[in-house]
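Researcher: Quick test of sequence recovery. Tokens follow.
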């Protein structure tokens, strides 16, 4: 640790103060790919009979191609067979049903939430500047209101 300071003005919805520190550390090199996310297939589309038929046809076509290649090559190993099977299924799913659309997880935070949090933060700063019982009660009241508003918005969003 090189330096440690307490920050009285930081609002973290508690009666504790934020402690900020500076430290020196060595970070190992990550040889794996960063920000790698797995995309999910849109399997809800398979509830439609038409889409199921298209997916089956696509699988049959891909497996037909795979079968003719195997006859030409002769024998193969289990791991190679499994990898090819997995690739065939993934390719057929990508071409027919596609990927799930990304959901908007931040759409719930609007003007009402922003206003409630600003009022709560202003009350917190007033309470820190000159702590009194009335200011503490006002801050706690505004904190509850902000929590209820944000929670209800998040619940109605999805």
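Model:
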């Amino acid at each position: 640790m090189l330096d440690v300071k307490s920050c009285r003005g930081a609002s973290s919805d508690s009666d504790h103060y934020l402690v900020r520190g500076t430290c020196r550390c060595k970070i190992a090199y990550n040889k794996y790919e960063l920000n790698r996310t797995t995309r999910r297939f849109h399997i809800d589309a398979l509830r439609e009979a038409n889409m199921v038929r298209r997916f089956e046809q696509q699988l049959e076509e891909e497996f037909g191609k795979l079968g003719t290649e195997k006859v030409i090559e002769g024998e193969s190993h289990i791991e190679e067979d499994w990898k090819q099977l997995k690739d065939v299924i993934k390719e057929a799913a990508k071409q027919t049903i596609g990927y799930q659309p990304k959901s908007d997880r931040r759409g719930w935070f609007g003007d009402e939430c922003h206003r409630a949090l600003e009022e709560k933060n202003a009350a917190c700063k007033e309470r820190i500047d000159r702590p009194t019982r009335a200011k503490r009660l006002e801050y706690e009241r505004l904190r509850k209101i902000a929590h209820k508003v944000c929670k209800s918005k998040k619940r109605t969003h999805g």
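The longest strand covers residues 3-7.
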